[in-house]
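Re: weekly structure request thread

Next one in the queue (446 aa):
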Amino acid sequence: MNKLLLIIQREYFSRVKKKSFLLMTILGPLLMAGVMIVPVWLGLRDKTDHQVLVLDRSGAFVDKIPNTKELKFFYGSDQLANAKKKLADGPYDLVLELHYDLINGEKATPYLYYDKDPGMSAKQYISNTLENILFDYRLQGDSIDRVKIDKARRPVTLIATKVEDGKDKKVNTELNMLVGFACAIAIYFMIFLYGSQVMRGVIEEKTNRIVEIIVSSVKPFQLMLGKIIGVALVGLTQFVLWVVLTLIISTTVTSTLFKDQISDKVKQNGQVEQVMKNDILANSDKMQKVDTPNEVINMFNYAETLNIPLIIGCFAFYFLIGYLLYAALFASVGSAVDSEADTQQFILPITVPMVFGFIIAQTVVTNPNSGIAQFFSIFPLTSPIVMMVRLPFGVPLWELITSMILLVAGFLFFTWLAGKIYRTGILMYGKKASWKEIGKWLFYKA
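Done, posted below.
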């Protein structure tokens, strides 16, 4: 046991003290926070203003297209050829031509000309606005009251409610899917990131012949297990630091960059609350629903319905045991080859189950209680991915316990299997191992 602890300490501190570890520990949260914040920040700041010249041949759209912060509409009667010349010279960068048959023809075909592409959002806004104006125009032509149509056409919002132990529990499928996939992706990358470190460490020691000295003092299985556990502790240390630093950086940067947006949202929420209070006071037996415009905020209002302690606990379990299982396989591959270039043929069978787990996860979100979802969330090689995707949707306790027991059993079995390969392959030099030869190693007596 003392020798195992020494190996674990060596693997842990030799990696933690490296400059690359410290560098990635700092850069990792910055990159993750950047991935989350920068696209939103750029989307808010990178707004291009467009001056749109509208050539309305029908006269039905004059002064009816609302301006936005990015789109300003001006109306004229120029010839199309002259209007196109103004695209390059200014002041307009978009020309919208509306023919007379747009209001009378069965097919509405407006034409938008530009020198530089205005982007999808601008095109979509113009298209939707023209469609609404045409809709109102045709209703008026048929003497149909638009107000009555709007009253008759009311949105239907389906509230999904899970009945658990006789009590109602609201759920949000989008939030469940987001949390499940986030956990699965984190496990996937951490397993392969640190599992490959184990493999490269074994290859390096084997190439330098250091392993010959080490195995003279400890058993090959102890060496392999110590290396796996030591790298696992490195992974846990870095992952915890990543999570903490990412939350701190994201919170700080978000509150600074989006201060105005947050302030506006707080004011808006205060106005909504006041409207609801006034409505209750004025009509206590009837409470009208006030919709908040931000669907993302509405989605995260369901966060309290998630069993956060269970998700965090299961994430830690499936990450640790899943890593230990795959790291043992990576270590066996490292012991069977002399260089990293020779690992390709042996890595594929290890990566396929995890990739296949992601493919199965696509069907899990549509039907989390299907037979396929149940089987692959219990099967040890895919359960770290599939079970984490299923977990936010609710998993029967017996399935969760069975999955955990089988994953631990799978770890013990594959570690024993990898140990038999490791003890022989670690001292094999100058000969490329084949699948047939590795199969023989399994039956060698210690």
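Residues 264 and 270 are 10 Å apart (CA to CA). The chain has a mean pLDDT of 76.
Next request, please.
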